[in-house]
Amino acid sequence: MNPRIVKWTKYEFCTFWLFYGLLTPWYIYKIFTAGAPAYFCSANPGIKWGGFMNYSKINLLNQIGDAYKPKTKFYPKATINDVPFGFPFIVKPDVGERGIGVELIQNKAEWRNYLNHLSTDLIIQEYNQFPLEFGAFYVRLPKEEKGQLISMTGKDFLQFTGDGRSTVKHLIDTNLRATFRKDYLYQKFQSQLDFILPDGQTLLVEPIGNHNRGTTFLDATDLISEKLTYTIDEIAKGIEGFYYGRFDLKAKSIEDLQNGNFVILEVNGANSEATHVYDPKHHLIFAYKEVIKHLDYQHQIAKQNHELGVKYTDWRLLAREIIQRFLKK
Hints:
There is one protein chain. This protein is α+β, with helices and mostly antiparallel strands. It has twelve helices and eleven strands. It has helices spanning about 5-10, 15-20, 25-35, 55-60, 110-115, 170-175, 175-180, 180-190, 225-235, 255-260, 285-305, 315-329, and strands spanning about 70-75, 90-95, 105, 120-125, 130-140, 150-155, 160, 200-205, 215-220, 245-250, 265-270. β5 (about 130-140) and β6 (about 150-155) form a beta hairpin.
């Protein structure tokens, strides 16, 4: 199927603004009930803009114990010699969204190439090779003692399985999730495009678990356990002014995950998506019901924080930063 047609016919691949733009009437209603256009910034008063945009990921990671995160280091300006944990490692912008700028760096040549495009305010993490990655969505009402996990997403990374006949180029051309990033993948696998992948052999195409990088998101809400919820709740309470967001984490097994044994890659704030709705088995009505459920929690949390003394963000200040951000592009 033509990728352009897919983007208009399957909500999983819709542009962010198209999918969420249809919720505008609901958002306007919530503005009136909260009494502030930027009420959502009050959902996480300890984070800039509540974690809606332009917030520091390292500030959140620094509030998490070392036992629950990979070795992590922040560089205001990284250089080619800054390889604190050896190769391979993960690098990402301190202020970033939707997986933009996140890369697995395998060697010095890749590190040099990355730094030619971006070198300031970077987070470097030791590459964790646990096979399972999840997004656990956490909420806690400020007037309540305990938080909860209201959804969880499993991630199936983009990979090819060879048939003994098809080249890597053909596999890129014929895989729907790969064709959205065809030019990037041509460049990444330029020396392997004519290579025929042996029958049954797999090739990991994209090691970064983001939907716009070809990862399939799966609804893993049924994996939420009491121990997992308790562990994440305790971690979340250690983050100043944090009540709403998604923990991106890795685990060695489902059993480990449910027993609270995992590592946290990053924490997302008010801009967090209920990514489990993109599971191909779901339909549009289910997706909107779930999104609204999550955003209703955000609205309720923001209102309770306001009742407890948190001031609503001046929408004009937020609008100014949004405009400045788009002008920089």
